[in-house]
Amino acid sequence: MRRGERDDRGQVAIEFVGMLPLILLTLVLLWQCVLIGYTFTLAGNAADEAARAGAVGDDCGEAAERHLDGAWAAGASAGCERDGGLVRATVKLRVPVLFPGAISFPFDVTGEAGAVWEGEGR
């Protein structure tokens, strides 16, 4: 090699090492977005099931917890109220940080649903 010429060997390895933290951060943020979306899905489904159970006179809180995974069920709160001919169910879940069961964000995700009262005294 002549004097003054530059050698590019190792450049790709240096660039990869420099970009690795950014790649990992992007993957972590995407995973967190998936967990937030899944929590919204679980809250909505649990509220639907609670409203259906409440519409026929069953325990809506138990029905909601039956449709939640273990880590999400731990911090869940579910309730139903009857408003005339309609049963309204509300389920609140905590959003986990990176993986369920460890720590959660300080805000709740709420799922709401309604169903027509089908029990006695209709």
Briefly say what this structure is:
Helices cover 47% and strands 25% of the residues. With 122 residues, it is of the alpha+beta class.
Widest sheet: strand order? 1-2-3
* Strand elements, count: 3
Mean pLDDT: 83
Strand content: 25-35%
Low-pLDDT parts are: none
Order of helices and strands: HHHEEE
The largest β sheet comes out as:
3 strands, antiparallel
Name the structural class: alpha+beta
As for the number of domains, it is 1
CA-to-CA gap between the ends? 93 Å
Rg computed from alpha carbons, rounded to a whole number of angstroms: 25 Å
List the helices and strands and how they pair.
Blueprint: H1 11-55, H2 60-66, H3 70-74, E1 77-83, E2 86-96, E3 104-116
Antiparallel strand pairs: 1-2, 2-3
Helix pairs in contact: 1-2
InterPro entries: TadE-like_dom
Domain TadE-like: 10-52
Keywords: Membrane, Transmembrane, Transmembrane helix
